[in-house]
Amino acid sequence: MSLDGAVDRRDGPLAGNGSGNGLAKGKAAPAKPTYADRRLRLNPNTEHKPERYDDVQSDFDPAIFSSLERHLPPSMLEVPRDVKVQFMKEILSRYLPEGERIRVQRHKEYRYKLMSAYQPLHKELYNLHPSAFFMPSFVKAINDNTDESFRNILSEPSPGIYTFSMLQPSFCEMLLDEVDNFEKWVNTIKFKIMRPNTMNKYGAVLDDFGLEAMLNKLMEEYISPMARVFFPEIGGSTLDSHHGFVVEYGKDKDVELGFHVDDSEVTLNVCLGKDFSGGQLFFRGVRCDKHVNTETQTEVCYYMVAIFARICLWKCMYSGAFHHSMLAWNLKHA
């Protein structure tokens, strides 16, 4: 991809030395960077660590800038951040529809309204503390950062579906309490919140009330190293954004979620709850865009069953292209 109408900004011709031939003798002064080569990389530079753009005032989501930076030409990677921002804005303004820019801006305003008024119940949730959040075995595997260390803590009950012990029960309980506190607050002030997706009527987007920075760190420092090993063919090494949310199932709420694929390269699915029974996560194989709803061969089907659970039962990671559903038709709170 190239930037249409790119300008090669060069200084004027070198001045003569007064000898009348218009040529300078000796060494010329170093030329300023011209950034003439503005062709974007087709494939991302996975070795490059992009800058953060959370503080940039823009119609575009900060994650878009971080993602696009990996596609910048080499001549643009070392320039000041404001130069990169302006360059990327020029590109995005050409290809992002006006309606999408308006949608992004309205969502930013919505999130600001929530975060400026909501008072967190557990402030310690909003900054990632490894020893308080994660099981020791998981922390050790991440610190060792080898294929073997990851495989030692994982099980693969079905091809491409990985389960592992990750979160401390105390963290899960705090997260459930925080979400409950947030929902009680929005109900009290009668504020209509955006749900995580169009399929679930109950739940909340964690980023919308302040957990974005914590989840970014979770993705970058803890999920990405594992995704690099287990999902290299679908971009596991270049995860650059997340959609963190909780959805609720139970009496007088959603009781199931039909078959679908996720809008993600990699999904981390955590089963949370306080004293409940019932519930199944049902996988029906990986699907491409053209065959999302085709029939399934029985050999690619796999059930994860929650007969009884307290606080946190399963944690599994899989490709977002897995066709799956949540079967909770008999879910009852104990």
Automatic annotation (TrEMBL):
The keyword Nucleus is annotated on this UniProt entry: no
Ranges where the Prolyl 4-hydroxylase alpha subunit domain occurs: 159-323
Domain of life (superkingdom): Eukaryota
Keyword Amino-acid biosynthesis assigned: no
Region (Disordered): 1-54
Family annotation (Pfam families): OGFOD2-like
Cofactor(s) of this protein: L-ascorbate
Keywords: Dioxygenase, Oxidoreductase, Vitamin C
Single GO term (MF): dioxygenase activity
Low complexity: bias regions: 24-33
Comp. bias (Basic and acidic residues): 1-12, 35-54
PANTHER family given in the database record: 2-OXOGLUTARATE AND IRON-DEPENDENT OXYGENASE DOMAIN-CONTAINING PROTEIN 2
Protein name: Prolyl 4-hydroxylase alpha subunit domain-containing protein
